[in-house]
Amino acid sequence: MIVHATEFAGASLIEPKKLGDERGYFSRIFCAEEFLRHGLPATFVQQNVSVSKKRGTLRGMHYQIAPHAEAKLVRCIRGEIVDVIIDLRPQSPTFLKWAAFHLSAQNMLQLLVPAGFAHGFQTCTDDTEVGYLVTQAYCPAAERGVRWNDPLIGITWPLEPSEMSHKDRNWPDLDLKRVARRTIVHQSAGCAR
Predict the structure, then answer these.
(1) pLDDT at residue 187 greater than cutoff 80
(2) What architecture (CATH level 2) is domain 2-18+25-184?
């Protein structure tokens, strides 16, 4: 695997190496030892998959607050997506900056999204499948979100959303005081660890 650093501390693009022959190819998409060698999280507790039927479907921007903050390793298994992250870490030099990454079944790139980031994606094709590993189990009481078109962030999406959940469409405007407090304070959000 080749690990490409991004401008965001802790966020990396992971490029698998393909070993090919007449049958096709073999590729390793995760190796705990290699992730640890690069300073990346290597303990994942849950694997998720989402399938979106329509091109333009938007999912996000989600995150969980401490102590349930999670890192994610995101991969597009079928189709293609534009994967977006927002740095919500108040002490970070990239606080409130966002970036978009093109992930597809074809390019096989994976995005390591660190804890403390909001994450979401938009599908570029019909019947898109996205899989991701997470370092913390889902905790509904710790779930938060940033609205997809929050004017403070100003994400430029490639398409007008064709589908979106009611919850994702209606996250409140980002409250900087709440983000800072919830990122720093480590109190239980109501779920067992």
Answers:
(1) no
(2) Sandwich (2.60)
